[in-house]
Amino acid sequence: MSTDSSQRQGQAPKRPKVWAVGGGKGGVGKSVLATNLAVAVARLGHRCILVDADLGGANLHTMVGLPAPKLTLSALFNSESASLKELIVPTGIPNLELISGAHALLDMANPKYAQKLKLIRQVMTLEADVILLDLSAGSSFNVIDFFNTAHNPITVVVPTPTSIENAYHFLNAALHRRFKQAVAKAQATEVAARIFSERRTRGIGSPRELVRYLSETAPEAAVTIGKMMASLRPKLIVNQMRREEDANLGLQISTACRDFFGVNMEALGAVRNDDRVVASIIARRPLMASQPTCQISTVIESMAVQLLQQDKEAEKEVQNG
Question: For the domain bounded by 13-156+274-304, which CATH number is listed?
Answer without folding.
Answer: 3.40.50.300
